[in-house]
User: What shape does this take?
Amino acid sequence: MSVTANLRRALAVALAVVLGTTMASSQAGAGAVAEPRQPNIIFFLVDDMSADLLPYMDTVSGLARNGTTFTDYYVSNSLCCPSRASMFTGQFPHNTGVETNKGSDGGGYQAFEKHESRTYAVALDQAGYRTGYLGKYINEYPVGAGYKVPAGWDEWHVAGGGGYNEFRYELTRYIKEETADDKPLDPSGGRYLVDVLGQRAARFIERSREHAPGEPFFLQVSPFSPHSRVGVKPGEKEPRFPPARRDRPKTQWPAGEFPNGDCGGTDCDSIDVFTLPAFNEDTADKPSWVRRDKLAPKLVKELRKDFRNRIRMVQSVDDMVERVLSTLTDEEKRTTYVVFTSDNGFHLGQHRLVRGKSTAYDHDVRVPLLVRRPAAGRHGDLVTGAVAQNVDLFATFLDLAGADPAVRDSRDGRSLLPLIQGRKVKDWRDAALIEHVKPDPKAPGAPDPDADSLKAGNSQPPTYAAVRTAGDLYVEYEGEPKPEYYDTVADPDQETNDPDNARTADLGKALDALRTCGGPGVKDCWTAAHLK
Assistant: This one.
């Protein structure tokens, strides 16, 4: 690496540290306003939303106004079930034991169920919150007659695996004050699931005024969108990524409302997948599992269609967020935090990887996190480059609820609230841990919704562990003789692997501490995340 590149990298890392600790913003108000005690919290958690979709979502992007944008927010594992388990518990997958999507393979609801008594829902319920959960929960959670409502939830509106296709599903309807005895289960009636979740979320807010006047509420809305359908077969008319019918092209069946579909104000036909960073790039320098031939034109055409449909899918998410926020009264807006993120990202041809999300590259693990602060709080748009992770959400929600700091900080993450509020934070973490256990494709049970039917040209990564800092990505793979390393300042799209870089020695030591952190006789994970 040249002296110039080294200097550029050092300056960029220093800038990220400054952003992460001072939260400076030219738009931020000079005087802080007292935050409301026990504010309402609305948490939107979408599925498989990569950061490249955010520019097409006006309402969600607008959460940055008088809000906080986290530019370096990473998931602990870019797979649905392990990532969600980390959010609920505040712990990394190696500490939850939830490693895949399937119970027969060390994951799924079977591995997670034992944690249900220790999620943030239980803590918030004990703190006096009225709580509601809507949408996708944990992989393989059984939706059927007499379904289980996990501890801590006052309302429970959850769909099973049928939710992936958005039109054919069953949705629970548990409302503690109204339906606790019979636990209704409602058919879809052909209604688009994202729209139904928006309607039910609005009703949750209205019922909270009725059943718990003056008390705070916590509402989590978790649509399946923009995840793909499950069991896609060649030649089917229904898209792999199914938008709401109104958002589809007018010239296709079923006809939508716009000539080329709705892509958030941009002409869908002008959007092309090859504009994604590192799309179809030469992978000769990559680890063996990544290396492959250039994507053929026919496959690029399919990926272009997929990308446009994913953009169309998130229009209904944007509509849903707008609907929920419009339900709030002016007083509720003064006392409500709104959090938006995804359980993981997604790739469509970057590094010649066809479809998926299980890698340590930024398109899979670095996802949007936006937090709108209460109207009664600090004004101004804040941006932080602090390294944040999904294990921090548990502590953040408990911090908002005023929980005992000893309980709040008892897990692997720490509260993001000081960063959200623009306060200076000393001694924040330097590194994020990313883990992955390769699922067993022969594990018994229903098909994994994140498995891809392609047998060639889309190999999934082997088991790995990775460290991501403000300026580095370092990965160690099972079965690979050398690590993978990128200077993410000089090479933000991770196109030039440099496994012999001098930085790898220190990062390897850091990874050794992080991959076992939180266990008996070893460093706790917060300590291990400090490299200096």
Summary: The mean pLDDT is 92. The radius of gyration is 22 Å.
